Amino acid sequence: MNGTFDPLLDATIRHLETLRERGVGHVNVSAETLKALRLPASRVGGNLPPAKPEAAHPRITIRPEREPAPANQTASPTPTAPPARFQAAPAAVEKPANPITDIPDTQPMPSSKAQKTKAAAILALQQKALACTRCAHLAASRTQVVFGVGNPDARLMLVGEAPGADEDEQGEPFVGRAGQLLTKIIQATGLDRGDIYITNILKCRPDTPGQDSGNRKPRPEEMETCLPYLHSQIDIIKPGVLVALGTVAVEGLMGPGDVISNLRGKWLTYRGIPLMPTFHPAYLLRNQSLSIKRAVWEDFLQVMEKLEMPISKRQRQFFLNA
Ligand code: URA
Q1: Cβ < 6 Å from ligand 1: which residues?
Q2: Cα separation of 241 and 85, whole Å?
């Protein structure tokens, strides 16, 4: 291996990885550089390793400079010269493909511009929400607004009821005991909290005068007042699936109806998006029965199927025959 080339190659790969993490879907290189990349290694930088025939970075496309970058598309191959692609980082450090956030090579890549726009729009909305005083009593009692957290480009959005004491203190939804259980459920699907988006119907903790812990149920008029924030979050993120956690979350979205034990496991539609109602993780903490755990897990298996996520045999068996 060439002593100068290896560190340069590593640095380039690291740079491309960083760009990809920031949402960059392609990089432009000059026609000259592209040509050089296709030359036998010995003619570019001396004693280089032979080119790997199928070397391809799965997520960043390298485009010749000045080629217009079509939105939502990878560079199209020219008949004479296929687009140069970069070698992926070593398999050991590469995260396994994640069907929620990773776009397979064969599909059009969302433009990084669209991703940046979503992130910027969410941030702008968050700034508004953080200053909200529409419910004067909640604005007066809250420590902070708990807007939502996660990937603005997520395909899965979880909607809970309202922040509790821990969330009010930390400014992030589902960080208390129920939240820790929810994180475990998310991880059981193969995802992380950062892959999805998590928020609540109500962005402020319902006030509980004279009471340090425990939440009261959000009032219908509070949910009504706060709902436009959730609508904007949904409209910006455009998730492929929504999950409503618990009766109050379903009521906040769909209006009063049946109890969660009758609603769960059956697809509804909200703003044109498939919505899966399931039990709230706090209910799971109170009721440790295997059948309830399995019920929630079956709801998440349906969500995974809807999102065309891979499901292993082991995952299908969770909470069966224990
Ligand atoms: N329960 C909820 O519904 N939301 C939270 O953020 C925390 C607990």
Answers
A1: 160-164, 167, 173-174, 176, 178-179, 200
A2: 32
CA–centroid distance, 66 to ligand 1, in Å, is: 49
Task: Output the DSSP codes for 279-313.
Answer: --HHHHHH---HHHHHHHHHHHHHHHHHTT----H
Q: How far is the CA of 284 from the centre of ligand 1 (A)?
A: 13
Per-residue model confidence (pLDDT) at position 74: 32
Beta strand residue intervals within the chain, DSSP E: 26-29, 61-64, 149-150, 156-160, 197-200, 241-245, 268-270, 273-278
Residues of the chain whose pLDDT is less than 50? 1-9, 11, 15, 18-19, 22-24, 26, 28, 30-109
- The SS3 call for residue 149 is strand
Task: Give the bridge partners for 273, in sequence order.
Answer: 270
Domains defined along the chain, listed by start:
112-316 (3.40.470.10)
Neighbours of 178 (CB within 10 A): 23
pLDDT score, position 254: 96
Please give the Cα distance from 100 to 98 (Å, whole number). Answer: 5
Q: Among candidates 225, 179, 182, which has minimal Cα distance to 201?
A: 225
Cα of 267 vs centre of ligand 1, distance in Å, is 22
CA 42 to chain centre: 43
> Rounded to the nearest 5°, which phi and psi values hold at 161?
-90, -65
Global pTM value? 0.67
* Cβ contact 263:277 at 8 Å: yes
Q: How far apart are CA 173 and CA 200, in angstroms?
A: 7
Backbone angles phi, psi at 98, to 5 degrees: -115, 110
Residue linked to tokens 């930390």: 170
Distances (CA, A) of 196 to 21, 204, 228: 15, 21, 20
What's the count of helices (H) and strands (E) in the chain, helices before strands?
13, 8
